[in-house]
Amino acid sequence: MAAVDVIDEYLEALPGESRRLAHGEWGVTVAPEQAGGWPLHVGLVLHDGLVRAQAHALDSPDGIDPWMLMWWNRQTRIARFGCTREREVWVHADVPVAAVDEREIDRVLGLVVEGAVAVREYQRARLEPAPEVGGGWLDGR
Q1: Is residue 136 part of a domain?
Q2: What is the pLDDT of residue 5?
Q3: Neighbouring residues of 131: CB distance < 8 A, sequence distance ≥ 6
Q4: How far is C-alpha 33 from the geometric centre of its chain's CA atoms?
Q5: Which end of the chain is more exposed for a tag (fewer CB within 10 A), N or C?
Q6: Looking at the predicted structure, is the pLDDT value of residue 136 above 90?
Q7: Residue 92's domain spans which residues?
Q8: Residue 82 belongs to a domain with what CATH number?
C-alpha cells in the first residue's frame, strides 16, 4: 500500500480532528486536555522520500534554557527539538517513506506529541511558582 494511503487510513481512524490539506499533507489537532493545556497542531508531509511530522510546541522559550533542548535531543530517538528565528519551539521527526506503516506513523506522531507536551509541562513548571507548603511543625509556626 502507498504511504499516502497508509497515512490517510491511519488518520481517518484517529479520534478528534484530522484533515488532509493537499496530496501528501495532513494536519492533526490534539485536544488541550492531552496536549499540555492548549491545542497542539501537528503537521505531516510526505516529500523527497521522507515523512515529516512537526508540531509547534511553544511561542517562546521563556523559562527554558535552549541548551537543555539540545541535551534533550541527544536523549531522544527520531523526534527532536528545533526553533525558529522568532524563538518558537517546535518538535519534529522524519522517517523514510519505505518505513511507513500504521505502526511507524503511530510511533512518529506519538513521539512528536510526547516531546511537545514534555516541553510545555517543563516550561509551566519553571514559570509557575511552587505551591506553598505550610502548617507543619518545621515551618516555624
Answers
A1: no
A2: 94
A3: none
A4: 14
A5: C
A6: no
A7: 3-127
A8: 3.30.1460.10
Answer yes or no: is 11 within a domain: yes
Q: How confident is the model at residue 135 (pLDDT cuts 50, 70, 90)?
A: low
Q: Residue 15's pLDDT band (boundaries 50, 70, 90)? A: confident
Please identify which residue in the block is written with the cell numbers 495532513. Answer: 26
The pTM of this model reads 0.87
- Pick the more confident residue, 112 or 137: 112
Backbone angles phi, psi at 74, to 5 degrees: -75, -20
Question: Pick from 78, 33, 37, 31: which is nearest to 54 by CA?
Answer: 78
CA end-to-end span of the chain: 69
The answer as to whether 141 is a domain residue is no
39/49 Cα distance (integer angstroms): 29
Record the cell numbers describing residue 115, joined without a space.
Answer: 516531546
Burial class (CB in 10 A: 0-12, 13-18, 19+), 69: buried
Q: Are 114 and 121 in contact (CB under 8 A)?
A: no
Domain total of the chain: 1
